[in-house]
Amino acid sequence: MSRGTKIPRYRYLTDEQCRLLHEGTCGLLEQVGIDVAHQGAARLLLDAGANERAGRVCIPRHMVDAAIAGTAKRIELAAKDPESTVVLDPDNGPLVHFGTGGQALTVLEYVAGAFDKRPARTEDLAAILRLCENLEHVDFITRPVEPDVAEHEMDLVKTRVFMENTTRHMNLANLVRVENLPAILDMVGDRGRVSFISCLLVSPLHMVDETTEKFMRIVEAGVPVAVSSCCQAGTTAPLSETGAIMQVNAEVLSAIVLGNMVRPGAKLLHRGLPITADLYGDGSPRWCQPDSIRRLACMADLTCYYGIPCCGTAGVSDEPVPSAQTIAEKALGITAELAAGAQFVNSALGLLDRIMTVCPEQYVIDNTIISLAKKHLTAGNRYDLVECAESVVRDSLAAFGAPFDDDDAVETAARAAYVVSAREDISSKSIDTQIETIGKAVCTGQSSTAFMRAARKGLRAGLLYNGSRLESAIDLERLHGAYEMHRNQRSDVCAE
Amino acid sequence: MDKEQYLEEIKRNVVLGHADKEDEGFDGDMEGTPGVSELVQEALDNGVEAKLILERMSSGMETVGGKFESGEYLIPDMLAAAECVGAATEILEPHLLKEGVERKGRFVMATVEGDLHDIGKNIVITMLKGDGYEVRDLGVGVDAADIVTAVKESGAQYLGLSALLTTTMVHMKDVLDLLEKEGLRDKVKVLIGGAPTSEEFAKKIGADAHCRDAFEAVHVLRDFSAKAA
Ligand code: B12
């Protein structure tokens, strides 16, 4: 049996828009190319027909299209509990799965009516995994926090903690040391039970050395891996939605090309995060504002268009502690990504403060949000996404005792409407403009400054949502009580 | 245009962050009109003193700073203006030298070994250039030896180190140790920054200052030069 929820896909982009974005992506790869730091990877790509121009590896369209055609379309991720198998199969009425994510550095602890923050430890990793055993809507585990041991021990300690504390599929996320891969696989036994995430790309269009080596070894071993690229539109990519999606897509596809050369038919998940930078503040990432939520959903839509298994992202709140605003952000993000049909949505539970923090109580809240999102989107044969999102926000707040007044309703409606409305025309002309902007930025030593300068116009045109916060209080005692209940439910599940 | 008109036009373009003809400027509609770079060149050709241009650009940056504090300007606006001044200062450089005007100081900046994060570092560089410093950017993932060599070669009075990872911030200490070993420690003030760093960490490794952001860096440098004077 397999986990997952079947949802009629909401289309954020038309097929024609997807086609244009693909054209733009290929244009970028062909004309601007990738700056490949890993010599072996550069050699592989060049020998297979890529061209070197000004030190960059330019990948022709036929190589991209061949990789899209050849890469694995159906990926089965096994788990200790066979009922928890996760099947990613975008072309066959995609099932959406939700999981945790990280890597958070700190943990919030509920003490005497308030949250205390402290560094994350190995025990936290174990405790979170055990808690998630009792949460119905956790379909898989992506490593939430790393163990606090010496760097050379991290991989094996992490694997051991996973083996002992979860029956779900184990997405270990990053491989800390490449030489530890054989030992990890040995410890796991059944390779199908693990997968990784490789962040081998740095925006704009740079493939790093060390992580690329790890990526190639993982692919060689036949283990599934999500190829991740996360820009911050406005600082490491154009602020434009079209530009950021094209750039991130080009980054991910370049790794999919490479992966399929290392091993034809490689099991790769497309994980593109074209999220925005907070240009109203200090430029740090906006994970859960309507602009980023929309872009993540568009990325999932484009990935489904390709038929490549999609690792989506939803529900990383920008807020530091559980609150009404936190719930509202996550409810909208999770609903939008569920509707997009992303099959492997990680980071969906527990994460706060722009992925810097996890909170045990937050896992319980997010489990509820996911259940409500599923309930509202599957209530009839068809759904109105904006109405559903509003209902999920309202019901999630109610579940944790937060009042919802008229102002909150207006703000929630505005946020949901923003997520479903396009602010830019996607055309051959706008695509050429974006290729030019990106090309110029990568040529300067300081691309982030070039992107920020180019962001001024879009900023004034509303490309970053600017709304108000939901300020009502949630019932912390009730929340903590719900958490205690889940935590104590059945603690012996992992004893084999 | 007469001298005063040139100076005012340069200041106006600094405030609007309009770098050159190809730049869109604050509202996105200034493409095609001459920006700070062209205006500065033209002013120099017409005999306007470099020193006066520099002063008027600084006055423009004061205006920009005010608009930023009041919330009218956002980070990209501030950066664009600082970039205009940075680029124009390069054009002014030989003329300033002839007029006997000294630059504020030389800065070497790097993200430390093993660390690829550069967004924050670049913001700091742009702001410092806009404030009149000469900055040599060593880029990302730079090891201690290369940083110290650059400090030695350039005779910089200031060194900026950035780190965003808890695993790489320790390399800041390597740089300070090597500076000490090479007898350079008292010749250069070391500023550090990046999310995991702190005042406390700066003290611990013996850096001269920790800066939360680019504005603090500008202020800290002002304090240093006030104390030196
Ligand atoms: C963007 C980002 C990336 C981008 C970097 C793109 C780029 N070109 O820089 C990419 C995707 C490449 C990336 C990669 C990784 N990242 Co990263 N990244 C971030 C993120 C989200 C934002 C950083 C940022 O740009 N902030 C905005 C800028 C403006 O702020 P700032 O850098 O702090 O700079 C300001 C001040 O600090 C100060 N300042 C900074 N430096 C200096 C220097 C001086 C001299 C002065 C005076 C002032 C100063 O002034 C600046 C302007 O105001 C942070 C999370 C966060 N919110 O901090 C994680 C984060 C730093 N990354 C993290 C991690 C783990 C990684 C990876 C290891 C991920 C992976 N598994 O592969 C890799 C490491 C790559 C490497 N070897 O460096 C962790 C670090 C955890 C830890 N243990 O320390 C963080 C905290 C996220 C997280 N919670 O997981 N990352």
Could you walk me through the main structural features you see in this protein, from its secondary elements to its overall organization?
The complex is a heterodimer of chains A (496) and B (229). Chain A has helices at 15-31, 39-47, 61-70, 122-133, 151-165, 181-188, 210-220, 241-262, 290-306, 324-340, 360-377, 385-399, 406-420, 428-443, 447-454, 456-460, 476-488; strands at 5-6, 35-36, 51-53, 56-58, 75-77, 86-88, 95-100, 106-111, 114-119, 140-142, 169-171, 194-198, 201-202, 206-207, 225-230, 268-273, 276-277, 285-286, 311-313, 344-349, 351-352, 357-358. Chain A has 496 residues and is an alpha/beta fold. Chain A has one domain (5-15, 69-424, 463-487): Trimethylamine methyltransferase-like (TIM Barrel), CATH 3.20.20. Chain A has a five-stranded parallel beta sheet with strand order 10-11-12-15-16. In chain A, strands 1-7-20-19 form a four-stranded mixed beta sheet. Chain A has a four-stranded mixed beta sheet with strand order 9-8-22-21. The radius of gyration of chain A is 21 Å and the shape is globular. With 229 residues, chain B is α/β, with parallel strands linked by helices. Chain B has two domains: 3-98, Methyltransferase, Methionine Synthase (B12-binding Domains), Chain A, domain 1; 105-228, Cobalamin-binding domain (Rossmann fold). Chain B has nine helices and five strands; from the N terminus they run H-H-H-H-E-H-E-H-E-H-E-H-E-H. Chain B has helices spanning 3-15, 36-45, 50-69, 75-99, 119-130, 144-154, 171-181, 199-205, 214-228, and strands at 106-111, 134-137, 158-162, 189-193, 209-210. In chain B, strands 2-1-3-4-5 form a five-stranded parallel beta sheet, with helices on both faces. In chain B, strand 3, helix 7 (171-181) and strand 4 (189-193) form a beta-alpha-beta unit. The model of chain B has no long low-confidence stretch (mean pLDDT 93). The interface between A and B is medium-sized, with 25 and 28 residues. The structure holds cobalamin.
